[in-house]
Amino acid sequence: MDPEFWHDRWRENRIGFHQQEFNTHLTEYWRKLGLSPGQGVFVPLCGKSHDLTWLDQQGHPVLGIEISEVAVKAYFEENDLQVQQQQKDHYSLWYKGALKIICGDFFDLKPADLQGVKGVYDRASLIALPTEYRQRYVQHLVTLLEKEAKILLVTLEYPHAEMQGPPFSVTESEIERLYHQYFNIEKVYDQDILNMDENARFKSQGLTHMSEKVYLLTPL
């Protein structure tokens, strides 16, 4: 997707994907990955997510990447964190202690940028990408990660013809196609969420069904 699309969304504050609380799937299923405090975590397309804070509170060095400087700046300001910055070759690094956000393009990342990462939390990255970007995204992510890294993946699935994303519908069969050659795939949650109050905006757009699914991906 054109980066300018996301720059516009953040500039115009059209960020319905942003959650005000810690994600319940993160707090419930993260420990199933078996990571220890001190092991690094990567959060792609992180926005200004409060989940970065939760992961930091668990003792993980946290690395997010976000293309919008508006979002990165908002995260540190809204959490009252005294941020430091460094300019790298292909991005700027914003950090407070072991919590870091790269302001740049995910596809510009190199394996050295993710050194020490043992887990990935993807709630809003895969489903933010149109179909034609998703295979490229997964293949690039795999090249960045150390072999033992695990992933907690949250997706949405709905009738594609009923709504144009983002967030996009990603089917179980597509998850299998994208990840099966790299990871064991375990689905741990599958629930129709359309009638939940926070999803009324999707129902008002004509959706008849929306499932939220959570997968644990462990390397083969």
Provide structural commentary.
This protein has helices at residues 3-11, 24-29, 51-57, 69-78, 131-144, 172-179, 200-204; strands at residues 40-43, 62-66, 84-87, 92-96, 99-103, 117-122, 150-157, 183-192, 211-219. It is an alpha/beta fold. It has one domain (3-10, 24-29, 37-219): Rossmann fold (3-Layer(aba) Sandwich), CATH 3.40.50. It has a 9-stranded mixed β-sheet, with helices on both faces. Strand 4 (92-96) and strand 5 (99-103) form a beta hairpin. The longest helix has 14 residues, at 131-144. The chain is globular and about 45 Å long. The model has no long low-confidence stretch (mean pLDDT 91).
Amount of helix? 25-40%
CATH H level, superfamily name: Vaccinia Virus protein VP39
Provide the domain count. Answer: 1
Q: What are the secondary-structure elements, in order, as H or E? A: HHEHEHEEEEHEHEHE
What is the tally of helical segments? 7
Number of DSSP E strands: 9
Largest sheet: 9 strands, mixed
Strands of the biggest beta sheet: in what spatial order? 3-4-5-2-1-6-7-9-8
Q: Write the CATH fold name.
A: Rossmann fold
Name the CATH architecture.
3-Layer(aba) Sandwich
Mean pLDDT comes to 91
